Amino acid sequence: xxxxxxxxxxxxxxxxxxxxxxxxxxxxxxxxxxxxxxxxxxxxxxxxxxxxxxxxxxxxxxxxxxxxxxxxxxxxxxxxxxxxxxxxxxxxxxxxxxxxxxxxxxxxxxxxxxxxxxxxxxxxxxxxxxxxxxxxxxxxxxxxxxxxxxxxxxxxxxxxxxxxxxxxxxxxxxxxxxxxxxxxxxxxxxxxxxxxxxxxxxxxxxxxxxxxxxxxxxxxxxxxxxxxxxxxxxxxxxxxxxxxxxxxxxxxxxxxxxxxxxxxxxxxxxxxxxxxxxxxxxxxxxxxxxxxxxxxxxxxxxxxx
Length: 305
What we know:
Blueprint: E1 2-7, H1 9-21, E2 25-31, H2 42-49, E3 55-56, H3 63-71, E4 76-80, H4 88-92, E5 98-102, H5 116-120, E6 125-131, E7 142-149, H6 156-181, H7 202-205, H8 213-222, E8 229-233, E9 236-240, E10 243-246, E11 257-261, E12 264-269, E13 272-276, E14 278-281, E15 287-288, H9 289-296
Parallel strand pairs: 1-2, 1-4, 2-3, 4-5
Antiparallel strand pairs: 5-6, 6-7, 8-9, 9-14, 10-13, 11-12, 12-13, 14-15
Helix pairs in contact: 1-2, 1-6
């Protein structure tokens, strides 16, 4: 079966290489075109190494790029991490249409922040969907789904790289085989159960110290590493990353520093204590929280806002 792939970053690269390993004939590839002086996208590089001439993903919105995509004569299109909104003509160019990876159990968590919000909401399970995209946002029929656990201390980074990334590569390869065998279903989503959350941005990542301890911890985990949870100290933003939560309650105001240790700082929460191990001062790189505290002269009793 002749396959065309649209994607980017390490996930797109991994899917391309996996399909090649499986003996799939790749006839076209699209990824963000390298910008002058910038690092080339991994999928773009992998496509060139495979002997393909990649097409800039944004060019698929124009006549020339779309014509090249159609001329490839693919049987199936594979979308592996695509952030561009593409025209219907690009999706229907392959003879059997296009399939897409989405890191949630659709119809739950449609949208671009499908991995952040389940962690922020305190969910204990999520998964991935391979579906047939239509003209809606993640609304097309399902081909296959896989579930996975969200552990109590998972971050966005650990959930993706340890589970949803490798599971996604396997699922895309499985989906291609199902299409080739003529066994790929198109199961309509249960649309009344759908949820859609906005992109998780800086406005969602500010730490609400007054909220219950578990909710604060969930928000930090769900924003680590992107967009990065943050708080304020003396008029400057401080990013808060790797943490550990203890539900032992101690006296003090939420957001107040309880202890300063070599490996981090303890901050009082509403019903618990947050041990912060890594922070990012405004305009600087991430550093050990204990070292940062010593450097800036942070004192026990100081309070983050």
